[in-house]
Amino acid sequence: MSDSAIGYVHSTESFGSVDGPGIRFIAFMQGCRMRCEFCHNPDTWNMGGGTPYTADELLGEALAYREYWGEEGGITISGGEPLLHIDFLIELFKKAKAEGVHTTLDTCGQPFTYDEPFFSRFEELMSYTDLLLFDVKQIDDEKHKKLTMMSNKNILDMARYLSDIGKPVWIRHVLVPERSDFDEDLIRLNDFIESLDNVIKVEILPYHKLGIYKYEALKIPYKLDGIEPPTAERVENAKRLLNIDRYKQSILL
Questions:
Q1: Cα–Cα dist 240/230, whole Å
Q2: How many CB atoms lie within 10 A of CB 178?
Q3: What is the CATH number of the domain that holds 89?
Q4: Which residue of 61, 99, 175, 193 has the fewest C-beta atoms within 10 A of its own C-beta?
């Protein structure tokens, strides 16, 4: 296994129930270039951390829980940003599909580019990926830069590409007061989602403050200090503007 790609894993969850269909084994990869103000896992940002795994090691750990997955479950790779470990993901998902395992990738899409060598690797990864959980943090590019310190242009390019190849996607939007909870932006986001042909579910994820203690421990300034989670009314408003009831919850390929 000396030629195997190595992935760096922050942590795992054996019985995940919200990151893809069914019961899933979830691996959270280490490393992310974005600096989302609402991120509740800043301990995943550093590319130098995590536990090294080969694809065989992580798949073996996941398969120990296979009997609990049922017909819809499988493996979800999240982060951090898993696409920073793309060679590892290709090997892992290829081996998982050989075992008949449903594969889900949870990504914000920030590393996406049509440039080589990334794009050819991404195309190969998609051939072994059943479903993507795709975060759209903010549809407005300038607001996206304020919220994440990165542009969304290549992220939206990735969303369009996934639509072009018909890869099933769940769109996720974290609703943050004063950042991503503006009616005009939610309407724009809805228009963008409606332009795609591959979206099978849209989720609103209300901002929460459960990760603040991590910022304190890491001595990282918390930029949303004083901002409270959205009210139930604003969450329902976002669901209405994004027409989420029209989407089915899951799909298996």
A1: 15
A2: 12
A3: 3.20.20.70
A4: 99
Give the count of alpha carbons within 13 A of 74, CB side only: 27
Among positive and negative, which fits the CA dihedral 214, 78, 19, 95?
negative
Q: Is residue 130 part of a domain?
A: yes
CB atoms closer than 10 angstroms to residue 57:
17
The strand pair at 7-16 and 24-29 is best described as antiparallel
Supply the pTM of this predicted model: 0.93
Which of left, alpha, beta for 118 (phi over 0: left; psi -120 to 50: alpha)? alpha
E strands, the chain, where?
Answer: 7-16, 24-29, 51-53, 74-78, 102-107, 131-135, 169-175, 199-206
* pLDDT tops 50 at residue 2: no
Q: Confidence band (pLDDT; 50, 70, 90) for 251?
A: very low
Q: Which residue has the tokens 């065989």?
A: 56
Tell me: the pLDDT tens digits for 156-188? 999 999 999 999 999 999 999 999 999 999 999
Residue 13, beta-bridge partner list = 26
Q: Which domain holds residue 189?
A: 7-246
In this structure, are residues 162 and 211 in contact, taking their beta carbons and an 8 Å threshold? no
